[in-house]
Predict the structure.
Amino acid sequence: MTTDQTTEQEGGEVAIEEVEPLYSFSPEVITALGLSIPLVIGERLCDAALSKLKEDDAWRTMSYKELRKLFRDNCSDQDGYLSPQAPLLETVVRMLLAAKKDAVSLSDVHAELSDLWITSPWPRHISIESMQRVLDNGVAYGIVRAD
């Protein structure tokens, strides 16, 4: 599913360009909800990231950028970090935090989630349109459309 974007061309013609939505994790939203960034993100760190810390709870004093780097460097490739049994929004938050880019396209999120779910003993499916509706309402998890 895409969003239409209009642009005016030479000669007064209007062109409609389809733009795929991008999603990102927003620490500002988490803070606005009155939640602690280190707590929200730190509780989701994978085992490989936790083993890199000098102290077990060192993540409690880390900034968002430091935690995000720890995610990117350690959790994106760890087997089993994303579970097909986990709730959809929890899985997407982990995907966004571990992603190499700050924003991920709807189709990339859908493809990665579909690949994960197909490996489950009880495979699930969600259409890309339904996923967009879920992600557009994922603010409580810090999921927002990227500009």
In short: The two ends are 17 Å apart (CA to CA).
